Structures are given as C-alpha cells and as structure tokens.
C-alpha cells in the first residue's frame, strides 16, 4: 500500500569523507517529504563513514528505531547512501519489509511502499 499523506518518516543520509556534508541530501529529502505530506519524525546521519561498512552509528540508530516501529517509512537520497554492498542492502530491505517499514530512494525513484516499487 503506498504511503499516504501524514506518513511518519525517518530520513537517512551518509557521506563518505569529512570534506563532504549531508546538507544537500537532507534538503532534498525534506523538500520531498513536504511535497508528499509526510511528517518527519527523525533524521539519522553518518558523516565520513564508508558505505561498505555494515555497522554505522546513524544506520544502527535508524534500524533500532525501525525495530521499535517509530516510523512507517525511511527516505534516502540514493540507495548507495544506505549501502554499497548488495548483500547488505538486500538484508536491510528484507528486515524493513518484515517490520512493515517502507523505503523511498529519490535518485532511483524507488518507492517500495507500492506494488510497482
């Protein structure tokens, strides 16, 4: 079922190096959330952390909150911000599906809350 207006959403952003910032990702996600009518409940970020690392402070906190059903949806600027390892991505997506938490990725125009995806 597609996420409807008033969906409770968490934003997740990651940058790989200390000379990068998550601000552009956050701005795009906030704008998208506003247009969609989502309520942003939390923002999780990882700064200067490689996407190949499966354990990251922001991602770990995001998943802990997802397990407690704190939100309905996670929004990311791009799938490679969530992870660069396909096995890790599939594991995350499988757990989110089991928890009933949707995922939206802006770059790929991916919306896993709908049958079309």
Written overview of the protein:
- The chain is an alpha/beta fold.
- Helices cover 37% and strands 21% of the residues.
- The protein is globular, with a radius of gyration of 13 Å.
- It has four helices and five strands.
- Strand 4 (102-105) and strand 5 form a beta hairpin.
- A five-stranded mixed β-sheet has the order 2-1-3-4-5, sandwiched between helices.
- The chain has helices at 23-36, 57-67, 79-82, 86-99, and strands spanning 8-14, 39-46, 73-76, 102-105, 110-111.
List the helices and strands and how they pair.
Layout: E1 8-14, H1 23-36, E2 39-46, H2 57-67, E3 73-76, H3 79-82, H4 86-99, E4 102-105, E5 110-111
Number of strands: 5
The fraction of residues assigned to DSSP E strands is: 15-25%
Kindly provide the radius of gyration, computed on alpha-carbon positions and rounded to a whole number of angstroms.
13 Å
Average per-residue pLDDT, rounded, comes to: 90
Distance between the termini: 10 Å
Strand order of the largest sheet: 2-1-3-4-5
Order of helices and strands: EHEHEHHEE
Could you name the ranges where pLDDT drops below 50 across 5 or more consecutive residues?
1-5
What is the overall silhouette? globular
Individual helix count: 4
**Helix content bin:** 25-40%
Summarize the model shown.
By secondary structure, the chain is α/β, with parallel strands linked by helices. The chain has helices at residues 23-36, 57-67, 79-82, 86-99; strands spanning 8-14, 39-46, 73-76, 102-105, 110-111.
């Amino acid at each position: 079922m597609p996420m409807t207006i008033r969906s409770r959403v968490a934003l997740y952003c990651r940058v790989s190096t200390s000379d990068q910032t998550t601000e552009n990702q956050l701005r795009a996600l906030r704008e998208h959330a506003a247009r969609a009518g989502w309520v942003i409940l939390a923002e999780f970020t990882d700064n200067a952390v490689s996407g190949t690392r499966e354990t990251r402070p922001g991602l770990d906190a995001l998943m802990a909150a997802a397990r407690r059903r704190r939100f309905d949806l996670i929004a990311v600027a791009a799938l490679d911000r969530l992870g660069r390892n396909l096995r890790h991505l599939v594991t995350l997506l499988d757990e989110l599906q089991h928890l009933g938490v949707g995922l939206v990725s802006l770059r790929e125009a991916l919306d896993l809350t709908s049958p079309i995806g």
